[in-house]
Design goal:
about 220 residues; alpha/beta; Rossmann fold; eight-stranded mixed β-sheet; two-stranded antiparallel ribbon; 6 helices; 10 strands; about 20% helix
Length: about 220
């Protein structure tokens, strides 16, 4: 799975996210709690991976129209409200090879044991696993504790470029932009950061899924 831009895909040795693996995403600042930017990025990556997507949450499901704007239509997503059993439901779903992607919204600690179980289940079935980490504490140090995820990313919103020539003093009215930081990757380049997502990375626009008029990242 590729982001579609060398500035991001070059962060990891495979030139993109490996399928049948566990990948970890979290927000930054205020988005550590809500996790909107990483959720949209996960949806965009999942959109071009054929097959059903299971999205496991503790309570309320995410805002589906936002995912549709990233190319992941509601007909492809199965939402599972798991309460405190998010990790257990993820583990069960990852053992079904008919699925394409399993996403879990995890609050608090993940840990090596639980994440290793998810990683092994993903490798065994060929299903890709995304963990969306959340915390009520902004930039919680718990989110930096070691896990068995193959890659770890932190996504933050940044100002959109000015898009109104007649009102250059009005910021933030363009397409959403993200700052994507690779925090951990086996054989990768942790600490690398690129500006991307719904806008530009190194001055270039991302490719959007053909089914989506807006938002998202190509996942090839």
């Amino acid at each position: 799975m590729r982001f579609g831009l060398p500035a991001i895909d070059g962060f990891v040795p495979a030139g993109g996210l490996l399928p049948a693996a566990l990948h970890e995403f979290s927000g930054a600042g205020g988005n550590t709690e809500h996790g909107t930017p990483p959720a949209q990025l996960i949806a965009a990556l999942s959109a071009q991976c054929p097959g059903p997507v299971v999205w496991v949450v503790d309570r309320d499901p995410p805002y589906a129209p936002s995912f549709a704007g990233c190319g992941l239509g509601p007909d492809r997503v199965i939402y599972a409200a798991a309460g405190k059993a998010v990790l257990g439901v993820m583990d069960d779903c990852l053992r079904h090879p008919s699925l394409a992607v399993v996403v879990g919204k995890v609050s608090g600690r993940l840990g090596l044991t639980a994440s290793r179980r998810l990683r092994l289940a993903a490798e065994s079935s060929g299903v890709t696993a995304f963990v969306l980490r959340r915390s009520l504490v902004h930039d919680d140090p718990v989110l930096r504790e070691p896990t068995a995820a193959l890659t770890r990313w932190r996504i933050a919103c940044v100002w959109s470029p000015l898009t109104l020539p007649h009102a250059p003093e009005v910021p933030g009215v363009g397409r959403v932009h993200w700052r994507i930081e690779l925090q951990r990757a086996r054989g990768g380049q942790p600490g690398r950061t690129a500006r991307s997502g719904g806008g530009c990375c190194s001055g270039r626009q991302l490719r959007y899924p053909p089914s989506s008029p807006r938002g998202g990242v190509s996942c090839v």
